[in-house]
Specification:
The chain is mainly α and 375 residues long. The longest helix has 27 residues. The protein contains 18 helices and no strands. It has one domain. The relative contact order is 0.13.
Length: 375
């Protein structure tokens, strides 16, 4: 049904079936209800981050440097996500709900965007199921109702995925540049966490772009340069500012953002340990701490990836890859690379799993339709 003609999928996504829009509206309404209802009862979320935003509102100096303690020390994250929260607090007043609102809205937009990205390849039913899975995934709902920055980052990387998909379909480097710029924006929200999806993006373009291999490598090299250029301006600006004229870089050992990236938010995440996420291992995401957050969907996502891939390659076993096969490369690599990372990395927080949720939800939507087709 949805693993045949891509033209039919495109026609359906353009509105030949108005019920799709009605159901999508219901899914988005459900997401809005889960993300926004009783938001005032959530308090200030992470008090450390809330205090940072309050301090940022006191001066442009503190705003730029993401100061936490009256200009003495900065928060251990890049500033962009907190700039968004500070803008919300400036518009609506400094309240707990005004700090949580940007993440709640970002979560709703993630659901809508995932519907579009999955539906354009596998049809509206798969898109709706993926959107519903994302809207209901516990870790997504939890982060959407918090001032942690994963919801903003998830929206950013989904937008970047859209650009990389268009780049892979057209071979036009301008879409790669757009996607790379958006990844750079993500870096300025959560640093290296934004780069976890790059294996999926790069592999998609490498195997699917309708240009020669040499041009693919050149294009990806250009994208890498753009990512670095978009990621580092704030880092360079802070590190070049004399230490006595700015806050101490929180959680760094040598008072530089570069050290914060490489150390606390880099090597420590891989080599450290955190009892909240259990011991590293292949079954970690299914244990008691994490299974209820997203682990319960992993078997269905894995089965969905296998079944959908088998159906798609059985019908078209040769290159070039069609749109469905390209989508499976993207979501499958995103899924597998993050599962591997979260299984082996030592020190990370459970809410990081919101970065895995879009790929899991996409494969759940695709997989349920594939299984139904086989049935």
């Amino acid at each position: 049904m949805y693993f045949g003609d891509s033209v039919r999928n495109k026609r359906e996504m353009k509105g030949k079936g108005p019920w799709h829009h009605i159901v999508l509206t219901a899914v988005l309404a459900l997401s809005a209800y889960l993300n926004l209802s009783w938001l005032t009862s959530e308090g200030y979320g992470n008090i450390y981050y809330a205090a940072t935003v309050k301090n940022m509102l006191t001066s442009w100096h503190n705003f730029f440097f993401a100061s936490f303690d009256a200009g003495f020390v900065s928060v251990d994250k890049p500033p962009l996500g907190f700039w968004i929260q500070a803008a919300s607090a400036y518009l609506f007043g400094f309240h707990g709900w005004s700090l949580l609102l940007p993440q709640a809205l970002a979560g709703i937009l993630c659901v809508a965007l995932l519907y579009y990205l999955v539906g354009r390849s596998f049809g509206p039913v798969a898109g709706l199921l993926a959107a519903l899975a994302l809207a209901l995934t516990p870790i997504s709902v939890a982060t959407n109702r918090h001032n942690n920055l994963e919801s903003l980052l998830a929206l950013t990387v989904l937008l970047a995925a859209w650009a990389f998909i268009l780049a892979a379909e057209t071979g036009r480097p301008r879409w790669l540049v757009v996607g790379a710029l958006v990844v750079g924006v993500g870096f300025n929200i959560k640093m290296l966490e934004a780069f976890l999806v790059l294996p999926a993006f790069y592999l998609l373009y490498l195997v699917a772009a309708p240009v020669g291999w040499r041009r693919r490598m050149i294009h990806l090299g250009l994208a890498t340069v753009v990512i670095v250029a978009a990621s580092l301006p704030w880092v360079v600006a802070v590190d070049l500012t004399p230490a006595e004229q700015r806050p101490y870089v929180g959680s760094s050992s040598f008072n530089t953002v570069t050290d914060l990236i490489v150390g606390w938010n880099g090597v420590e995440r891989l080599a450290g340990s955190d009892k909240d996420v259990g011991d590293p291992g292949p079954l970690r995401l299914l244990d008691r701490q994490l299974g209820g957050q997203i682990g319960w969907l992993l078997p269905l996502a894995m089965v969905g990836l296998v079944v959908a891939s088998w159906q798609s390659w059985k019908r078209r076993p040769c290159l070039p890859l069609n749109r469905q096969q390209q989508a499976l490369v993207l979501w499958g690599t995103w899924f597998m690379s993050l599962v591997v990372f979260f299984s082996v990395a030592g020190d990370w927080d459970p809410y990081y799993l919101a970065m895995l949720a879009p790929a899991v939800a996409a494969l759940v939507g695709v997989g349920v339709v594939a299984l139904w087709h086989d049935y």
